[in-house]
């Protein structure tokens, strides 16, 4: 059973303030794909609107065919790159994944495209700080035939590192899965963190001028 | 039966002395000569059926779609000049997409019928545009339940329980009137529509035809879609059985 999945933090920022803490940044696109985004949330909403129009006209053809993840990724790449060329980018990093039956059987796809139009396909994708903190872990520990549970554990390991080290993350995550049966977006949950280190007690002990 | 509109029928911007616009009436003739299109409003949705006359053995089965989805919850069946019909469908799709973009909710069927009717009527107002040679049956399911509208080449649009266009419309309308539509479910409605279309098909004048059925109902999650193949086969079988019964008398 081929599947792919995404996880992200449920927050949207207002500048450097983490203002909205229940924002779902993953959506299903058509029957075969999932899209996740980081960056400017209003631009993501606009992208979702474009995708809505795209999937609606695809649906109305009613010809037994539907757009797969590769096609949607290609479309988004064109949109992002053309906006960048007009010096009016959509300020997002988009992750697109999905599964669709192709001529060689069920084909999995995972790719990303960012605000300057850089796009590629990989077995593991991350945006923002994830590129620096999570990708090394994924490169070391990802393998082709992981089960869903193993994959969740691996991703949670990465999310935990990000939670500890990225100042703009919160302890509220969401996982989404896409298989040939369709997309499932799981409800938000938190990870267990450990702050009971000796060095964290009396935090203002050695601080000059604190009261 | 045709009335000669000598002199008053050359332009769509000319009235005849008895208040008729002949060009629009002639456009209606194009609709009257096409394959039958039937639409009925059942208690849980709409069923649209088209008698697609097959003009050549070389045509691939399933081509020449006559029933189109205009939005997720609305469908349009076209009778008359197919190319004109394509234009109306394109316009309806664009109106529906635009409405949703601006108002954030799917376009109400009544509003869509209004816009389509206005567009069709528009083309009867200028001498440099000819009227559409097609009539359209629009069925959709929105917050106010299932609704069925019919728009004629003149731009006239009414809301119906059951409507028919094309060659066999008189016979079809008689059959529809016999049905108890408020008690029919769409599943039953499909069979009735198939029976009507098979019934009004003139074996002598036109040879082969393909039946195209679509619905939008509770069972299809209020989405407009082609009726699933197995149900279409059942409906066809029932319709053919009914025909044989009639022939046997």
UniProtKB/TrEMBL annotation, chain A:
Keyword set, alphabetical order: Nucleus, Proteasome, Signal
GO biological processes: proteolysis involved in protein catabolic process
Superkingdom of source: Eukaryota
InterPro entries assigned: Proteasome_alpha, Proteasome_beta4, Proteasome_sua/b
Principal location class: nucleus
A GO-annotated cellular component: proteasome core complex
A Pfam family assignment: Proteasome
Presence of the UniProt keyword Ligase in the record: no
PANTHER family assigned: PROTEASOME SUBUNIT ALPHA/BETA (PTHR11599)
The protein's name: Proteasome subunit beta
TrEMBL record, chain B:
Keyword set includes Nucleus: yes
Residue ranges annotated for the Proteasome alpha-type subunits domain, each copy included: 8-30
Cellular localization per UniProt: Cytoplasm; Nucleus
Pfam families: Proteasome, Proteasome_A_N
GO CC terms, sorted: cytoplasm; nucleus; proteasome core complex, alpha-subunit complex
GO biological process, one term: ubiquitin-dependent protein catabolic process
UniProtKB keywords: Cytoplasm, Nucleus, Proteasome
InterPro entries: Proteasome_alpha, Proteasome_alpha-type, Proteasome_asu_N, Proteasome_sua/b
Chief localization: cytoplasm
UniProt keyword annotation of Acetylation present: no
Oligomer and partners: The 20S proteasome core is composed of 28 subunits that are arranged in four stacked rings, resulting in a barrel-shaped structure. The two end rings are each formed by seven alpha subunits, and the two central rings are each formed by seven beta subunits.
Xref: PANTHER family: PROTEASOME SUBUNIT ALPHA/BETA (PTHR11599)
Function in brief: The proteasome is a multicatalytic proteinase complex which is characterized by its ability to cleave peptides with Arg, Phe, Tyr, Leu, and Glu adjacent to the leaving group at neutral or slightly basic pH. The proteasome has an ATP-dependent proteolytic activity.
Family according to the record: Belongs to the peptidase T1A family.
Protein name: Proteasome subunit alpha type
Taxonomic path: Eukaryota, Viridiplantae, Streptophyta, Embryophyta, Tracheophyta
């Amino acid at each position: 059973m081929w599947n792919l999945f995404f996880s992200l933090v449920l927050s949207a920022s207002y500048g450097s303030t983490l203002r909205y803490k229940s924002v779902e940044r993953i959506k299903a696109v058509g029957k075969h794909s999932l899209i996740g985004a980081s960056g400017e949330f209003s631009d993501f909403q606009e992208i979702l609107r474009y995708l809505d129009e795209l999937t609606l006209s695809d649906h109305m053809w009613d010809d037994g065919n539907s757009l797969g993840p590769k096609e949607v990724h290609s479309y988004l790449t064109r949109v992002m790159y053309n906006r960048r060329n007009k010096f009016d980018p959509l300020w997002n990093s988009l992750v697109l994944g999905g599964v669709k039956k192709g001529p060689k059987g069920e084909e999995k796809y995972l790719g990303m495209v960012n605000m300057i139009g850089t796009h590629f396909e990989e077995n593991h994708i991350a945006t923002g700080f994830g590129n620096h903190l999570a990708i090394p872990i994924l490169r070391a520990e990802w393998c082709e035939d992981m089960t869903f549970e193993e994959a969740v554990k691996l991703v949670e390991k990465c999310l935990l590192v990000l939670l500890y080290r990225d100042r703009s993350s919160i302890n509220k995550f969401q996982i989404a899965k896409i298989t040939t049966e369709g997309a499932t977006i799981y409800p938000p949950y938190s990870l267990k963190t450990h702050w009971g280190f000796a060095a964290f007690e009396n935090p203002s002990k050695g601080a000059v001028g604190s009261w | 039966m045709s009335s000669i509109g000598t002199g008053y029928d050359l332009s769509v911007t000319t009235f005849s002395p008895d208040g008729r616009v002949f060009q629009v009436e002639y456009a209606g003739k194009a609709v009257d000569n096409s394959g039958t299109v039937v639409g009925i409003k059942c208690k849980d949705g709409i069923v649209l059926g088209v008698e697609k006359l097959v003009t050549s053995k070389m045509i691939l089965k399933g081509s020449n779609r006559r029933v189109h989805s205009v939005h997720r919850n609305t469908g349009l069946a076209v009778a008359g000049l197919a190319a004109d019909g394509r234009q109306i469908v394109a316009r309806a799709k664009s109106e529906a997409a635009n409405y949703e973009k601006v108002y954030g909710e799917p376009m109400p069927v009544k509003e869509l019928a209004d816009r389509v009717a206005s567009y069709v009527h528009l083309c009867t107002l200028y001498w440099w545009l000819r009227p559409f040679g097609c009539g359209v049956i629009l069925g959709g399911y929105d917050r106010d339940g299932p609704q069925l509208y019919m728009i004629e080449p003149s731009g006239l649009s009414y809301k119906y329980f059951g409507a028919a266009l094309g060659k066999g419309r008189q016979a079809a309308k008689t059959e529809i009137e016999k049905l108890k539509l408020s008690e029919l479910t769409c599943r039953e409605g499909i069979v009735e529509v198939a029976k009507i279309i098979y019934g009004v098909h003139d074996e002598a004048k036109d040879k082969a035809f393909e039946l195209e059925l679509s619905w939008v109902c509770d069972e299809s999650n209020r989405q407009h879609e082609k009726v699933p193949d197995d149900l279409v086969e059942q409906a066809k079988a029932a319709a053919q059985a009914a025909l044989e019964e009639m022939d046997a008398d």
